[in-house]
Amino acid sequence: MTVRTRIAPSPTGDPHVGTAYMALFNWAFARQHDGQFVLRIEDTDQARSTPESEQAIFTVLRWLGLDWDEGPIVGGPHGPYRQSERQALYLEHIEKLLAQGDAFHCFCSKQRLDEVRAEQQEAKQTTRYDGHCLGLSADEVAKRLAAGEPSVVRMRVPETGACTFKDRLRGEVTIPYSQIDMQVLLKADGMPTYHFAVVVDDHLMGITHILRGEEWLNSVPKHQLLYQYFDWPMPELVHLPLLRNTDQSKLSKRKNPTSVTYYRDQGYLPEALLNYLGLMGWSMPDEEELFTLQQMVQAFDIDRISTSGPIFDQDKLRWMNGQYLRALDAEAYAEKVQEWLLNKDRLRDLIPLVQERAERLSDLLPLVDYLLGARRALKPEDFAHKKLEREQVVKVIHHTLALFDRKRSWQRDDLYESIKALAEQCDLKLREFLFPLFIAISGREVSLPLFDSLIFLGPDLSRGRLRDALEVLAISGKERKRLDKALDQLQLSD
Ligand code: GLU
Fold first, then answer.
1. 210 CA → ligand 1 middle, Å
2. Within 13 A of 450's CA, how many CA atoms are on the CB side?
3. Considering only CA atoms, which residue is closest to atom 4 of ligand 1?
4. Closest by Cα among 333, 74, 252 to 66
5. What is the pLDDT of residues 359-392, one digit of tens each?
6. Tens-place pLDDT, residues 427-466
7. d(CA 198, CA 36)
8. Which domains does the chain have, with CATH numbers?
9. From the CB of 10, is ligand 1 less than 6 Å away?
10. pTM of the predicted model over 0.85
């Protein structure tokens, strides 16, 4: 059997370190077995998927050196590799399930579903679909469909019994069917849900091993039922532990930079980031911490993955990156700097910001130092302003951080409009509102235009600087709570 693994990221937002982590383990396992690694884009959520986000996934995987054997760009015999282009396949398969009686049309309105859910919550029961449309006769279904009544397709789930499946790391897992919802497989817009598409695609793409995040463990009963309905063999399952913040919570952009682009732009080396991700839940047999991708492939052993949540620790990653940088000879170091800083893409974004402001090339660096490197450390006095009290400064930064946390895209005009609206709601002139942000972002009162700086730095770094500014201003837990509450009264755009 040829080992075939895959990652199936959704192209929403920035490319996440979690995606790089999954890619690394799937890639290493496939390479170790001379198998194939497939990239599939899960873009059935049309409202949230963007081409920029998809492009960013390709860019960071290439930067990391995790090449895919089949997928967008490179093609392959099981394409298309974007779910939005595979609709005909899903429809064909849904017809089969409907004909077998393993799936059914459901016409329930949102209002009815909400009522059912509320009743179940009240009775402290598992919230799930109550099977209302299961009993509709074939004639009635045909009539309602012909009349154009909106409907979804749901899967049938046994009323009694339990599902037992095997996860390679956890052994046998049993989940009673009473806890499993009659999952929607096809939405009213004709698009499949994740649960349906993932099963159809993994089968048609010949995936033999699914290595993915443990958040999907509880979905396996739904998937296993679908494999049974289709009479398909189930791939082997390996649910990897989720990356965590230092406080053990699930790694989130509110607490840590999570975008791979951030690490690249901050001058982390791809080999150091990969090495660090390789230590997440796994270690070399000899516990050696520094290893190359090649060494990882040779020594990789799925059964040595630990299920306890690995901490994604910035300090450790920085230390590791330092080890890699120090190990380079001068020539290789120079090449790295050139790749990172002096590459045309980075400069292309930077030049328009400085061209009008510099008379000599040597004027450039002082203008952009806070964009390319860390900004200087701040003191509370840096935020002193003749019209703004400390409380207002804290409020501006706190509210802007909340706004940034909500942003799904990072565009100059949109950021400008949202901040302007926020300033108005805070009863502050835009100029005054922007002052603390200038300081927090650039460390200076006079710098390049704030919104250009935000765009160049990107969301993770911008958020990180605001978080740091709040620390410098010694925001207290009480103050934070009060501001969070005040925020609920405001309208923030996302
Ligand atoms: N789109 C899902 C995710 O990004 C894929 C999960 C899976 O690998 O099955 O988490």
1. 10
2. 22
3. 9
4. 74
5. 999 998 899 999 998 899 999 999 999 999 999 9
6. 999 999 999 999 999 998 888 999 999 999 999 999 999 9
7. 18
8. 4-84+243-322 (3.40.50.620), 86-240 (3.40.50.620), 375-487 (1.10.10.350)
9. yes
10. yes
